[in-house]
TrEMBL record:
GO cellular component: outer membrane-bounded periplasmic space; plasma membrane
Pfam families the record matches: LptC
Organism field: Aerolutibacter ruishenii
Keyword RNA-binding: no
Protein name: Lipopolysaccharide export system protein LptC
First-listed, main subcellular location of the protein, grouped into a coarse class: membrane
GO biological process entries: Gram-negative-bacterium-type cell outer membrane assembly
GO MF annotation, one: lipopolysaccharide transmembrane transporter activity
Length: 189
């Protein structure tokens, strides 16, 4: 074996090892870069009332913790309870909406509730109405709520389930968009 053949084999092995090491390093570094924002403020044990452009109550909220992202100007909230009132002059009971977490848009025009979302109110006859889903987007200014997830709406003696929701909260008009199933249950009197 000549020295040129030995040198060729050494260079070939070195090239294979260096390529393998670069390839392996690329796999560990290819994940998304996540930057942790530092909130410009953190509120604990808070209650707040947000007003709309006309100075009327858009929603009220209670939560153990709220953080605000200074760059996006949005808020992240842990285990919130939102109360969405009826429109003035329409009477009716407000919606009380709970979830594991929530994100509020910079001007409060959209609230994204995620994880074990439950919305409760009463219909015009005073019967309880409950909506359960894993995600719900609420638009306080228009008193509207939407979801693309599975949804169950419950009233005494009646359960309606499906996928997707479009609701006018002030009119208590709820539309399930697809895969709708209804189940009647006997209620105790």
């Amino acid at each position: 074996m000549s020295w040129r053949t030995a040198a060729t084999w050494v260079l070939l092995v070195a090239a294979i090892l260096s390529t393998w090491m670069v390839w392996r390093q690329r796999d560990t570094d290819s994940g998304p870069i996540r930057t942790q924002f530092r909130p410009d403020y953190v509120l604990k044990g808070l209650e707040l009332v947000a007003l709309d452009d006309q100075g009327r109550e858009a929603f009220a909220m209670r939560a153990p913790r709220l953080t605000r992202d200074p760059s996006a100007r949005s808020m992240d909230i842990q285990t919130p309870i939102f109360v969405i009132p009826s429109r003035p002059g329409q009477g009716g009971t407000p919606w009380e909406i709970r979830s594991v977490s929530a994100w509020v848009a910079p001007k409060g025009e959209e609230i994204r509730l995620r994880g074990q979302v439950r919305a409760d109110t009463q219909d015009k006859q005073g019967r309880p109405v409950s909506i359960a889903t894993e995600e719900l987007n609420v638009f306080p200014g228009t008193k509207r709520a939407t979801s693309d997830a599975k949804v169950a709406m419950t009233q005494p003696g009646f359960i309606l389930s499906g996928r997707g929701l479009d609701a006018q909260l002030d009119a208590k008009r709820i539309v399930l968009e697809s895969d709708v199933k209804a189940r009647y249950e006997r209620t105790a009197r």
